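Hi R.,

Here's the chain you asked about this morning:
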Amino acid sequence: MKPIALFPLLVSALLADTVVPQTASDLAITIYNDNRAFVHDTREANVTTGTQRLIYEGVAGSVITASVVPSFSGVSTQLYSQNYIYDLISLDSMLKKSIGHPVDFYTNGRTPTLSHGILLAAAPVVTVRQKGTGKILSLDKPTQVIFHAVPKNMITRPSLVWNIRTAKAGKLGIDLKYLTTGISWKSDYVLNLDKKSLDLVGWITVNNRSGVAYPHAQITCLAGEIHTARPIRDRSIHYKQNVAMAMPAPEVKEESFSGYHIYKIPFRETIANNQQKQIRFTDKTDVHFTRYGTLTSRYFQKNGKEKLRFANVVELANTQDNHLGIPLPAGIVRMYQKDSTGESHFIGESRIANTPEGEKVKLTVGTLFDVAGEKTITRYTARKGYRNIESTYTLRNQGDTAQTLKIEEHIPTYGENVRLKTSCSGICSVRKLTAFVREFTVQLKAKASYTFTSEFEVYY
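And the predicted structure, written out as tokens:
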């Protein structure tokens, strides 16, 4: 049995009444955080005079059709209608589209012969009415069918099809803009800590599941939360990721734009379908930071005791004076530090929100191993219209290095008249954050401990 040759049939079917544009001459894509992108593509095609179909191949399989905006230049053109065709050619789809139409087929048996008929059904078995005899035959295999032509409205790749009328033959410029789902970007950071400073490398990670590649594209990433009218279904298919690492090249250009921040890649890149690509967008060194332990306490149970565990926090100022000072898009920061032998270790990761220049960045590394403590409710007086509660904090630093410890205490909002007391002094300081929140900071030396009390009295 001879193999079915679809490609020559497809080419002749398309070229008979369509114009297929050339490969994209200029492609730009703006990628958002919310699984969508704005594609701006320009191409050229040679058109004939009169009415014709113009097929624009290589459109994203997850295009938002209502967002498509085409425009034409060069040759005077009228656009009558637009279709998005994603019914791609396959043996199954060819059979279904050919039901009721003439086909050639090979008969069953060890010595099949070529015959002619009308295709009656495609599933679960392929059934044909044999020409001349009128017999209805069930074929053993669907590959026994030979097609006369490609069924109408079928194509090899998702495409936009425009019905147009041109005043004359010539070169037609096509400018296409559309939104698509299935592609997004995020920030990933690598932070290397030293004793007093750190190095920060930022990567733009693009994930393309839109169903099409973007060759040699000018890429812009927009950081911020854009407002959309309603959720849009993502029709993209998810596959195993392949990671492509781009060389650092020139630094990405950042600018403020319409309430957001955009990051322009200063070189063109190709983003293949079902690919994850990383592009380095910033590399900062000698950024100074502070390190401390912190916890939040809301515990005020009668005669109770709370174990204290402190999060290990790294805080840095996002300023130019601190060798940083750039808008940092939201992402995950993965932190590393070298030990006494110079070997580097992963020590934790933390997620940051979109952070403007001038703001502080707080990263939670993990939990301080060598710091322990308790909060004990040492006095609890409660009667109608009155509360008086005293807490005793005991902190211990069992490690070999000094620690700065911060406790954010949230007082229950029983009433309006509040009086606060504390024995915090010396290595301990206190500051009022709000009417019902205060922060204690203790500078605790290695192998040392400290105890202080916190009291509030409220009338209501």
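DSSP finds two helices and 34 strands in the chain.

Let me know if you need anything else.
M.
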